Amino acid sequence: MILRSKVNLRGNAGRKRGNVAINSQSAESPTIYGNSGSRTPLVWWYLNEIGQPYEVGDAGNPHPFGQVPALKEGELEIFESGAILMYLADKYGGLDTAAKRADANKWITWANATLDPAIFSPNIQASAPRVLDKLDGLLASIDTYLVEDEFSVADVAVGSYLLYIPVFFPRFSVAKWKNVTKYMKLLSSRGTFTETFGPQHAARVEQFLG
Prior knowledge:
With 210 residues, the protein is α+β, with helices and mostly antiparallel strands. The protein has helices at 40-50, 81-92, 98-119, 124-139, 153-162, 165-168, 178-188, 191-197, 199-209, and strands at residues 2-3, 16-17, 20-21, 31-33, 55-56, 70-73, 76-79. The chain has two domains: 2-92, Glutaredoxin, CATH 3.40.30.10; 98-209, Glutathione S-transferase Yfyf (Class Pi), Chain A, domain 2 (Up-down Bundle), CATH 1.20.1050.10.
């Protein structure tokens, strides 16, 4: 297994990396099974952002359907990117109230149930505008990030799908959605985005957004 994170924060409960609070640390790092051609980078990005060490599983994927991503931590096994993100945020992400957790979880659920299908559809030109219209309106009332203007797992979930557009659908323009464009620029400027998705992906995003 390969240790992905270079930052070890064990014994530093309550610290913050950037403006992401770290609630608690585990004596055993989670193992993430997956690859860059799946939703696994969403999980990697969040873990890199909060500075939580993790390992990349090279065998024995615990996903009952043989898909990725999947997480194993001790005896605990979780599959589906949304469920993994919710668990990690609850354990490590500093969402210290039920209201904050619900606020983040609604965005994770929306990203997987609505945004992802709208973008990765047979015809993004037909499916995405309605969803982006609504998102753009919601972002108009948000200064920076989705949950209390602090970067959180919600931004990872929503932002990852938006930032796949320049790579998979470079001819689809988001220019008319000013707030979405601003939000994408904000998220792609974070160092952990480039660290996780790679410089080539980041360069395509920068070129796409102008």
